[in-house]
Amino acid sequence: MDVRAGTPVDGLDAHLVVERGAFRLDVALSVAPGEVVALLGPNGAGKTTALRALAGLTPLTGGRLRLDGSALDGTPPESRPVGVVFQDYLLFPHLTALDNVAFGPRCQGASKAEARAQAAEWLARLGLAAHAGARPRRLSGGQAQRVALARALATRPRLLLLDEPLAALDARTRLEVRAQLRRHLAEFEAVAVLVTHDPLDAMVLADRLVVVEHGRVVQEGEPSDIARHPRTDYIAQLVGLNLYRGEADGHSVRLDAGPPITTTEVLTGPVFVAFPPSAVTLYRDRPTGASARNLWHCEVAGLETHGDQIRADLTGELPLAADLTTVAAAELDLHPGARVWATVKATQTHAYPV
Q: Transmembrane residues, as ranges (predicted)?
């Protein structure tokens, strides 16, 4: 069943309204069992507030919260079928990995032996059987993350919440654990909601993205669709695109602010136009033989290393970002204040309706 076509009987059906001073969160979420949804957005967007509201740690001031057809609005956090993996994992430092995982089943009424047996099973599933007797301080970051996940899953939750689950890991460990977490989430049969500001975590781990800015949903859809069709500057920056809005008339788009852009698409009416920084070619003198249909006079506002390339921040006729090699940047003698000509071929732009 496509949850976006209607409200699912099973799964999550939520309209989260939380007012805190001048900030208002107003986010609707429908998630089917077996689906992983990522709440993605900048700091202060309301992602963590939404997660805390789902967990029952922050009360709703309006809306609704239903899980598998049952209202959770008035249910205390400890009575909800919800598992949470916090950003800092929050493992009990005085307990072994086994007893950390057994804590949930014990709270649900299982005997000590039953809880430990369940915990051992979960640790084995996550490849941690050999670390059952270790306390958190003896675990690596990746191992601690998996213990926290096992502890959340051991209660057999109908809703799994993950708050920046990879943020505490170094880059190398993050790569490995991200792949492991994706595999475990794919096997999870209930609802999973992930909160992150990292686009790669969201793209890899989630089936669907819900982008939140200023407490509201600004775009949602499959990761590939959002990457191809960003609808705000924040999303465009996340996926590494120059993004503009304007009025299309055939192959030409007249921007709301700036010169027209020539595209290959034939459209009419309000559109977005996007192209990657790698599509931009820079010249110190106005090019005479270039085949690109788009040509703008710009000024270098700043330069920074971006992976193995140099990213130039340009202002002038059209503000944009351009990527080039360090050799090309040196040959062009680029520096803040340098005047350049920027070209982009129409075939490297992408226009789509607003």
A: none
Q: Helix or strand or coil: residue 336? A: coil
Question: CA–CA distance from 77 to each of 52, 162, 251, 312 (Å)?
Answer: 10, 15, 55, 49
For residues 36, 39, 11 and 49, what is the CA-based torsion angle, rounded to 10 degrees? 140
Q: Delimit the domains of the chain by residue range.
A: 3-237, 243-353
- CA-CA distance, 125 to 129, in Å (whole number)? 8
Q: Are 322 and 306 in contact (CB under 8 A)?
A: no
Domain with residues 243-353, CATH architecture: Beta Barrel (2.40)
Q: Which CATH superfamily is domain 3-237 in?
A: P-loop containing nucleotide triphosphate hydrolases (3.40.50.300)
What rounded mean pLDDT belongs to the chain? 90
Q: pLDDT by residue (tens digit) across 288-319? A: 876 778 999 999 999 998 778 999 999 999 99
- Tell me which amino acid residue 217 is: V
**C-beta separation of 248 from 267 below 8 A:** yes
pLDDT of residue 121: 92
Secondary structure (3-state) at 350: strand
What is the spatial distance between Cα 79 and Cα 72, in angstroms, rounded to a whole number? 9
Cβ-in-10-Å burial (0-12, 13-18, 19+) of 279 comes to buried
Comparing CA positions, the residue from 183, 151, 144, 139 lying closest to residue 167 is: 144
Element (H, E) at 192: strand 191-196
Q: How far apart are CA 129 and CA 172, in angstroms?
A: 23
pTM attached to this predicted model: 0.82
From CA 239, how far away is CA 227, in angstroms rounded?
Answer: 6
> Measured between alpha carbons, how far is 2 from 9 in angstroms, rounded to an integer?
12
**Tokens (6 digits) for 187:** 């096997």
Answer yes or no: are the C-beta atoms of 349 and 271 closer than 8 Å. no
d(CA 76, CA 96): 28
